[in-house]
From TrEMBL:
The keyword Transmembrane applies. InterPro entries: DUF3592. Keywords: Membrane, Transmembrane, Transmembrane helix. The chain crosses the membrane at residues 126-148, 188-208, 223-247, 293-315. Pfam families: DUF3592. This is DUF3592 domain-containing protein. Residues 42-124 form the DUF3592 domain.
């Protein structure tokens, strides 16, 4: 098995392992801090919720507090142990985390003997380091698969045009005509983003025009209905994308039937070949282009599911 190593591949591999290693190290530090911490009394100076800049914003929290440990006075802003602070996608969740800490009130802080200046208020680990572990591991894995993959999969693959090689499978998918399935999936992917965008604009306009600082949302209200429309359109897009991915995979199988023997290994059974095709910028034939598109569709589906899971975890 040949392995291709270029400066870019080596850099990506080191970067991925470094990011994953940082996340793992920080989680170990969190766990050790939770186990070894000593409880002390601390005085809350103030609390803060900061919002990130940019279109995709999130919130971080800090609580400034002062305490004494072994005769010396320290000031810390940490709420949780470790150097990776959690993020909140909803401001009310961030507010709830610092709600118990009022300025000039006393609370319990936890100090580790090897880092007395970094006392924290909540004796628990957080999910944040796993973002680095997951991203770094994925980057390293994809880079490694690309390095060991064949250099020209999806290229120079002849497709027979003879009647003996015409595809015989997947004329229907789940009982539906394959052309109908393709048409429905494409329309869903075009229509649902428009509904999602209009719903978000409607929500923003309604909230800006509301006289109350906070409102109770129900499905019968305009805001609640817009939220429901945004949710359903998002789910509809994922559903349409999934239908298209299934259709695209069957199209790949039909193209594969037309390849003369001996056929190359299936990219979907050999991840290194699939990753190399998805990375490729070279000229691909119809078979290679279909493999690349199908791989990207399923990658996007997994990414969207991961985003939903991340939002649910951070919001809980």
């Amino acid at each position: 098995m040949a392995v291709t190593v270029t400066p870019l591949i080596l850099l990506a591999l080191i970067l991925g392992l470094g990011i994953a290693g940082y996340g793992g190290y920080d989680y170990v530090q969190q766990s050790d801090a939770v186990d070894d911490a000593v409880a002390v009394e601390t005085t809350v100076v103030g609390t803060d919720i900061s919002r990130s800049d940019g279109r995709r914003f999130y919130y971080r929290i800090s609580v400034e507090h002062t305490y004494e440990y072994q005769g010396r006075e320290y000031t810390s802003k940490q709420v949780f142990p470790g150097s990776t602070r959690p993020i909140y996608t909803v401001r009310s969740d961030a507010q709830r985390s610092i709600e118990p800490y009022e300025p000039n009130e006393t609370a319990t802080a936890y100090v580790t003997p090897d880092n007395p200046s970094g006392a924290f208020l909540k004796r628990q680990t957080v999910f944040a380091p796993f973002r680095f572990i997951g991203f770094g591991s994925l980057l390293a894995l994809l880079t490694a698969l690309h390095a060991i993959g064949a250099r020209n999969p999806g290229q120079n693959v002849g497709i027979s045009q003879t009647t003996g090689r015409e595809p015989t499978r997947y004329d229907t998918v789940f009982g539906f005509n394959r052309d109908t399935l393709s048409r429905v999936s494409k329309r869903l992917m075009l229509f649902t983003p428009a509904v999602f965008f209009v719903s978000l604009v409607t929500i923003v306009v309604l909230l800006l025009n509301s006289e109350e600082s906070s409102i109770q949302v129900s499905v019968a209200d305009p805001v609640g209905f817009a939220f429901l429309a945004a949710l359903l359109s998002g789910l509809g897009f994922v559903f349409g994308l999934t239908l298209y991915g299934i259709w695209s995979f069957t199209e790949y199988r039909r193209l594969r039937e037309r390849i003369p023997d001996p056929r190359p290994p299936s990219p979907f059974r050999h991840p290194s070949r699939l990753v190399t095709i998805m990375y490729s910028r070279d000229e691909l034939n119809a078979y290679g282009r279909r493999v690349k598109l199908t791989g990207f569709v399923f990658t996007l589906i997994v990414f969207l599911i991961g985003v939903v899971g991340f939002v649910l975890v951070t919001a809980s």
